[in-house]
Write a structure and sequence with these properties.
The protein has twelve helices and twelve strands. It has about 400 residues and is an alpha+beta fold.
């Protein structure tokens, strides 16, 4: 009984510590871009406690393009205030209003793009599939409202800063242009075919190990690039933020809650998805100084890989986030099933990622020395053909269901 109370107190402390950073998400205004797209619904703050002390349910979830080498000055999240946000946006505005695709550069504004359909939601915006009228290029456009809330504007700046500076990384979704107006920010990104979260729901079966191996190479490279080149930690690693295209290329996206690292530590406890959160973020050794490092993202990667390899979320049958977080703290880490034919080095890689003691959990450089990573770094795996087969199966199943639907 006492341990349950202690856990509840710790989770309450976690909620209090992130409440200020996420206050804006409770009162975020709807977005209406007058492009025949639905308004963005108000998003619930992560880890919101209900009246019973529990946590709210987790809502689970081939054209050659030339990268646009936009840059802007470094952003220090801890010192940004209203005037600084406006100054940074003014810097970015001088470089925006351009779209680079197929080796050509176009001047664009919001009227240059037309809505085709909804793609989903990111950490701080609504993602719409849009067509550039002049070139015909199809884009994924993240649309964000510039509100008067400082924390929300920090998220927008962080997302912009990371994607604009990561144009030379093949494992991060590419920004082809951006539009900044006094009231809105649009990030125009290359369109990918799907995210891994949607893929496993369509597939309705586990992802083969060799496919996961190539995914691991891409995601670990992306995370290591962010850390080494820009001093950034993602903080929201999960299948819905891993994208796949028809060529079989996997890329990382959504950097709205990424954190600047100071002495390799993240000093704030921004919200992420509770289901993939590392134990040290839930119950830090020092609650008054909740610093953690990239090994928290390594844990999130491990949870994601188990989900992809088994087709099931490892902490299944939980009715709310409180139960998930309680199991993360109280149970042994998830492991791959022993009788599914997984290789020894895949078992070992998962065990490394999901080492509960973060002091013993490897960082990216160590993961890149693991035999599983090294094997798939050089292995020839036709991810594109596998994905094409998966989509064929999905379309066939959908067609059969339509024929049998009265």
């Amino acid at each position: 009984m006492s341990s349950s109370l202690d856990l509840r107190q710790k989770l309450n402390q976690l909620q209090i510590s992130i409440q200020d950073e996420n206050r804006a998400r409770k009162e975020r205004p709807s977005i209406d871009f007058n492009l025949e797209s639905p308004k963005m619904p108000r998003q619930r703050p992560a880890l919101q406690l209900n009246h019973n002390g529990g946590l709210s349910p987790h809502a689970r979830r081939d054209k050659k393009q030339v990268q646009m080498p936009l840059t802007c000055g470094p952003i220090n999240r801890s010192t940004i205030d209203g005037p600084e946000i406006d100054r940074k946006l003014q810097e970015i505005m001088k470089q925006t209003g351009l779209l680079t695709t197929e080796g050509k550069r176009y001047h664009i504004n919001v009227e240059s793009l037309e809505s085709i359909g909804e793609l989903g939601f990111g950490s701080c915006g609504h993602v719409i599939r849009m067509r550039h009228k002049e070139s015909g290029t199809i884009l994924a456009v993240k649309q964000m409202r510039r509100s008067g809330n400082k924390e929300e504007n920090k998220r927008i700046l962080m997302d912009l800063d990371v994607v604009l500076k990561s144009h030379n990384c093949p494992f991060i979704v590419q920004c082809l242009g951006a539009i900044v107006t006094p009231s809105e920010v649009w990030i125009c990104m290359e369109q990918m075919a799907t995210c891994l979260d949607k893929l496993i729901k369509k597939l309705r079966e586990p992802v083969p190990e060799q496919i996961i191996g190539k995914m691991v190479v891409a995601i670990v490279n992306a995370l290591n690039y962010l850390k080494e080149k820009h001093g950034v930690m993602h903080r929201d690693v999960k299948p819905s933020n891993m994208l796949l295209d028809e060529k079989g290329v996997v890329k990382l996206c959504d950097f709205g809650i990424s954190g600047r690292l100071v002495d390799s530590k993240a000093r704030t406890r921004s919200a992420g998805c509770a289901a993939y959160m590392a134990p040290e973020r839930i119950d830090p050794p020092d609650p008054n100084n909740p610093d953690y490092d990239v090994r928290a993202d390594v844990w999130s990667l491990g949870i994601s890989l188990v989900e992809l390899a088994t087709g099931e979320f490892p902490y299944k049958n939980c009715t709310n986030d409180f139960e998930v977080l309680a199991r993360v703290l109280s149970e042994d880490p998830p492991r791959l099933p022993l009788k599914r034919g997984f290789s020894v080095d895949f078992h070992s890689f998962i065990q490394c990622c999901l080492t509960k003691d973060y002091n013993k959990r490897p960082k990216y450089k160590q993961l890149m020395e693991h035999s599983f990573f090294k094997r798939y770094l050089v292995a020839r795996v036709d991810v594109a053909s596998w994905f094409a087969l998966v989509m064929y199966k999905v379309r066939t199943q959908s067609s059969r269901q339509d024929r049998h639907t009265p």
